[in-house]
Amino acid sequence: MQTKVTHLTSVHSRYDTRIFLKECVSLAKESNYSVNLVVADGLPNEVKSQVHIYDVGLSGSRMGRALGVTKRVLKKAIELDSDIYHFHDPELISTGLKLKKIGKKRGRSV
Q1: How many helices and strands in the chain, by DSSP H and E?
Q2: Burial letters for 24-62: b for 16+ Cβ neighbours within 10 Å, e otherwise?
Q3: Is 91 helix (H, G, I), strand (E, B) or coil?
Q4: What domains lie within the chain, and their CATH numbers?
Q5: Beta 51-55 vs 46-48: how paired, if at all?
Q6: What are phi and psi of 100, to 5 degrees?
Q7: 109 pLDDT band (50/70/90 cuts)?
Q8: pTM, entire model
Q9: Stronger pLDDT, 81 or 58, i.e. the higher one
Q10: Is residue 2 a contact partner of residue 82, using CB atoms and an 8 Å limit?
Q11: 8 neighbors 95 (Cβ within 8 angstroms)
Q12: What CA–CA distance (Å, rounded) separates 59 from 32?
């Protein structure tokens, strides 16, 4: 059975070198991991290099990102029901705490 890993970002682009290439694609090459990436860039959902990329919609301002986008990222994270969540932005700390509150405990390091 594959371990489901979801990377979450509200700031970075879907093809960010560090997140997409160095983390998501590298992990997706391992047969025992299924990898998702949740972004907020306004582009269509897609699968690239075995990584499932989900967009939650673009925000026009920093305040909009801090309020609206984080709620949409949380909703998508819950929907994906992953074993491990990896957060890439400080404004997603509250998202992690909410996931923990609903039973998504901190996973092991990959």
Answers
A1: 4, 5
A2: bbebbeeeebbbbbbbbbeeeeeeeeebbbbbbeebeee
A3: helix
A4: 3-96 (3.40.50.2000)
A5: antiparallel
A6: -65, -40
A7: very low
A8: 0.89
A9: 81
A10: no
A11: yes
A12: 34
